[in-house]
């Protein structure tokens, strides 16, 4: 803690009186000024050294960075330029780059009607995926010219694995209380479990859900197609079942050779999947 200039001057006079003995100076200073804060011997040495080196009693402030600047047109332009260069930049990073407070950076951004939209995680698309999706859309449109109800004859299927951890969004999770309840939510467990679930949809009907093996592989998926799928389709009208198209994604178990051979046998040219063997990709 800094001492006023008048107190620092008195410390120097006491230090001179004690002929440079800092510890003795503390004792004498306590006797002369009992109602003041009493400095330790290092304070006497530091003030004496500062005066010799700088000729000034004012402490020298060392700041490794540039001083913060107030909100000026130049600062505002710098903030907007940083946001334009990197739309994902944080206000903490803006504070470091532009040397402006986070609150000021937020106000500059809001005044320009720029809003911080949340990022939504999605599945990665490979380079060939956009073309494949376009091809599939064109095939569907062509078939609908011949059969306007073609899209209702596709059995769309997918699987999802549910775990005990779930998906936690702490951004929107809170507890209202008069005092902080220090609420906790467990996200990591010593005993884990997971459930792999298959479900399908055709026309206006849901097929399933059906629990698959937790670790699904090609043979396991083939057993599902051979033994369980037909039972799940029992409530689907026979005419629709005989003319339906089976669709699944390109997951590794779906691409097993035995699975593709079975689909070619059961659905001929009426299945949709990955690879050159799929009638519709």
From TrEMBL:
Pfam families the UniProt entry points to: DUF4817
Limits of the DUF4817 domain: 5-57
Name this polypeptide is given: Transposase-like protein
A molecular function GO annotation: nucleic acid binding
Native species: Dichotomius schiffleri
Cellular localization per UniProt: Nucleus
GO CC annotations on file: nucleus
């Amino acid at each position: 803690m800094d001492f006023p200039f008048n107190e620092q001057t008195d410390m120097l006079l006491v230090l001179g009186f004690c002929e440079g003995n800092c510890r003795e100076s503390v004792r004498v200073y306590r006797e002369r000024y009992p109602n003041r804060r009493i400095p330790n011997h290092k304070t006497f040495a530091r003030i004496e050294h500062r005066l010799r080196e700088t000729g000034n009693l004012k402490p020298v402030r060392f700041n490794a960075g540039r001083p913060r600047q107030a909100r000026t047109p130049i600062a505002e332009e710098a903030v907007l330029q940083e946001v334009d260069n990197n739309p994902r930049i944080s206000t903490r990073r803006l504070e470091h780059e532009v040397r402006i407070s986070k609150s000021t950076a937020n106000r500059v951004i809001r005044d320009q009607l720029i809003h911080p939209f949340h990022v939504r995680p999605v599945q990665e698309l490979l380079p060939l995926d956009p073309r494949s999706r376009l091809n599939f859309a064109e095939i569907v449109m062509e078939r609908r010219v011949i059969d306007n109800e073609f899209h209702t004859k596709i059995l769309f299927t997918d699987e999802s694995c549910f775990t005990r951890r779930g998906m936690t969004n702490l951004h929107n999770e809170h507890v209202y209380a008069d005092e902080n309840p220090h609420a906790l939510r467990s996200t990591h467990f010593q005993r884990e479990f997971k459930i792999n679930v298959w479900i399908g949809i055709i026309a206006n009907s849901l097929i399933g859900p059906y629990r698959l093996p937790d670790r699904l592989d090609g043979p396991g998926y083939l057993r599902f197609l051979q033994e369980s799928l037909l039972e799940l389709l029992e409530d689907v009208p026979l005419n629709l079942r005989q003319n339906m198209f089976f669709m699944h994604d390109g997951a590794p178990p779906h691409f097993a050779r035995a699975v593709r051979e079975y689909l070619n046998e059961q659905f001929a040219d009426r299945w949709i999947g990955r690879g050159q063997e799929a009638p519709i990709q």
